[in-house]
Amino acid sequence: MELLKRPRRLRANEVIRRMVKETSISVDDLIYPMFVVPGENIKEEIDAMPGVYRYSVDNLVKEVKEVYDLRIPAVLLFGIPSNKDELGSEAYDDDGIIQKAVKSIKESIPQMIVITDVCMCEYTSHGHCGIVRDGYVQNDETVSYIAKIALSHVKAGADIVAPSDMMDGRVKAIRDVLDKNGYVNTPIISYSAKYASSFYGPFREAANSAPQFGDRKSYQMDPANSNEALREISLDIEEGADIIMVKPALPYLDIIRRAKDTFNIPIAAYNVSGEYSMIKAASHMGYIDEKSTVLESLTGIKRAGADIIITYFAKDVAKWLTIL
Ligand code: PBG
Predict the structure, then answer these.
(1) Which of 21, 125, 148, 180 has a CA between 20 and 30 Å from the CA of residue 204?
(2) Among all residues, which ones are annotated catalytic?
C-alpha cells in the first residue's frame, strides 16, 4: 500500500507521543475547593463526595499546608455557618467562619493563594443566593450584600474573591467597594457563565445549601444557551473581572472553547461536585479506572481552552503528576 500520510508514525511510542503532545496539565493550573465548618478537630467526610471533607479551622490549616506542599497554588474556600438566617448575616460577619479560616491560613501559610467564594446560599435559611422578597431573589439589594461580603473576606486577608451568585452588576459593585477601601490590587474571579445545573447536587449536600423552595433558574443560566454565556462574560469583563469562569466544566466544553476564541482573558473552568462524584462512584464500582479517567477529563477541559481548573481531584492530580 502506498500511503504518504501516516498519522500513526507520530504515535509509535511514548517518547515520540510526548514530543507532539498538544495539551498538558500542570499543578500550576489547579485550584482546590475546600469546605470549612465551625468547631474544633473536625474532619467529616461528605457522603456524596468520598474523599472530600468538611474541616474545622484548625484541621483546615493542616490540610492547606499539605495542599501547599503539593505545589497547588490556590484553594477556594466555602463556609458552612453555625446559624443561617433570612439575610445570611454570617456571610459578612467579620468573625464569620470564612473570615476566621482566611485569617488562620494566611497566618500559617502566607504564600498560599486564598480565594473565597462570595455567595449567600450557604448562609441564608431559605438557601437562595440572595435576598428574597415576594418569592423573588432581589437583584440590586443582593448586590449590595455581595459587595459587603467580598470586602469582609478581603479585610480578613483573602487574596482573590470569586462571586458565584449570578446577580447582575455584582462584579462592578465588588470592584467599587474594594477600590474605595484601598484594595485596588485584589483580583476578582467571576463565575460568569454559571449554569443552573443538576451537577451541583453533591455540593449542596456538602454545604447544606439546597434552596428550600423553587430553584435557581431565575439567576443561574439555562443550560440550553451559549450566546448568552458570551454576553455574561463580556459584561463581567467590562465590569472589571480579572479571570472569568465557566461552570460546570465537562458538559460545557463548547462554552469554554467559544470564550477562549472570543476573549483575551484567563479562563477558569469548575469541574464541579457532580462531575467528581460520578467518577468516584463509577471507579468504586470498578466500571472505569479513576486515575486515567480523571486525567483524560482534565486534559479535555484544558484542550477546550481553560487556563485554570478548579477540581476536587487537585490533590490526587498533583500527586499523579509528580510520580507519572
Ligand atoms: C454557591 C456555589 C455552588 C457551587 C459553587 N458555588 C452551588 C450552587 O450554585 O448551588 C457548586 C460547586 C460544585 O458543585 O462543586 N452558589
Answers:
(1) 148
(2) 194, 247
